[in-house]
Amino acid sequence: MTSAALAQSVAYGDRYSQLPASADGIGKSYMGREISAVMGWQGAAWLERQERQREERTDLLLAALVLQPGIVVADIGAGTGYLSRRMAPAVMPGGKVWALDVQPEMVSLLQAGAKRSGLTQIEARLSAVDDVKLPASSVDLAVMVDVYHELAYPFEVLASVLKALKPGGRLVFVEYKAEDPRVPIKQLHKMSEAQIKKEAAVFPLDWERTVSTLPWQHVVVFRKRD
Question: How confident is the model at residue 9 (pLDDT cuts 50, 70, 90)?
Answer without folding.
Answer: very low
